[in-house]
Structures are given as structure tokens and as C-alpha cells.
Amino acid sequence: MKKIRLNDGNEMPIISFGTYQMTNLLECEEAVLNALDAGYRAIDTAQSYYNEEAVGNALSKTNIGRENIFITTKIWVSNYNYNKTIDSFMVSLKKLQVSYVDLILIHQPFGYYRESLEALKFLRSKGYIKSIGISNFYDDKLADLCLFNDDNFAPAVNQIEINPFFQRSNNINNNLKFNVVPQAWAPFAEGRNDIFNNQILTTIAKKHNKSVAQVILRWLIERNIPFVTKSINKNRILENISIFDFKLDASDLSEICNLDLNESQFFKHNEISGVELMYNLVKKRDNNK
Fold it and tell me: Which residues are recorded as binding substrate (predicted)?
């Protein structure tokens, strides 16, 4: 599995197996085990996915050594501030049944995330974390975080939405400007805009005797963008990692480039409507605890 070197010297597999929306714990556990059997060596979860325990159960059952599995989890907004971050992280560590995580992300760019980052730096100094990153940070907040600090801190990874309808070339370049690796979530846009039946993508897929999903993931590989992909279907889990036996040509890449709508397929974190949506989601979850 190809790896990407991060700004702290650590390496991350270019493909991560995602567990978002896998709320059935037994189903999640089985999917993670199937992914590991298929050759995935990076697993992505989060406090807000409510399945860290299932991921931990899978990790406890695999014969693959811990040092060979790259584990990512994320601190949720409700757990921002110094003490809450430390306490919630230790709970996550217990659920995952590991002594450290390879990558921890600040999940959303709202609230007291700077206090949370300070807590994560402390945890890293104690050996509980190897790399610290962020998620969903647009360019202004990324630049603010990288430039206005006292210890020259730059996040190792910024996990952001990237897919053929929201290609984000400028955002990617701006992350790289600060030596931050952009990692794609929702590479299939969760099926929005009927992406799996898109005429351009289906034509390219037939040309290479591959699926649309494989074409999209290969497109990311050729842009050297690591990504998170998920499925609970065993065959699709294998399909999504079987992308190293073909290459897209210049005409393919040009056709895919033309699909860019230059807008999020979900919501924009840098607009008031997006902030309000996230605020209401956090409040709803807090009230349901």
C-alpha cells in the first residue's frame, strides 16, 4: 500500500477504510475485519460515529499487528476545550482497545477547537498520539491556525470533502502550501447527482473495464490525494482497493476535470447556513445524551 509522508515525519496509507454511518456495531466490526482482510491498513472512525467500540473489537480480533494498522479518530465539537478533550480522548482510546492512535483530528472548525488542539499536543507529548490533524477547515481558518500560533504548529492532515463534483484544486494547493496533507472524504459524494450513472464516468469506466467507483478513486490516486472510502459490502470493499492495476490517461483526466461544479455536495462550513446547521446538530446530539 502506497503511503504519504506527513509533515511530522510519520507516514499514512493513501487509502483509509471509513466507518461513517456504520451505527450497527456488529455490522461495523465485520466490515472492518473484511477491510483488513482485503488489504486496507488504515481505519477511520470518530467519536461522533458512535462506533469506536466496534472498531476496537475488530482490532482485537485481527491477526495483523497493531504497528501495521493506521488508526484515525476525531474529537467531536461537544468535547472541545482542554479538559473535555483529554477526558473524551481517553474514553476513545479505551473503546478502540489500543494504547495510542496514529492520527487524531479536530472534527469541525467551530467552537473551542484551539483549546482542544492544545490538549492534543499534550497527549502527543505523552505518547498517546502520533499525528494531529484537522477536518473541514477552509483556507482562511487553515491559514489562521498555521500562522497565528506560538509553536510553529501545522496540522499534519486536513480531511475535507473532495469528489468529481467538488474538486477543490485551489483548496488542495493552499493546504500543500502550509505542508498540510489534504485527505478526501466522500469521494463518491455519497451518490449525490447520480454520480454512479454519470455518463462521462461510466464511459471512462467501460474503457478501462472498471467500475465508476474505481475510476473516481484512481483519479484521486493520480492526484496523490489520500482518501477515505467505505462500504459494508464485502465485494465493494475489495473493489475499492483494487485500483492499482490501471491508469487514467490525459483525456480521462480532462473529462473528469469538466465535471467540477465547484460547490459542496453537502454544506459549506464557511457560510452562515453551514455554521447554523452544525450548531443545531451539536445541540440536538447534546440534548439526546
Answer: 107
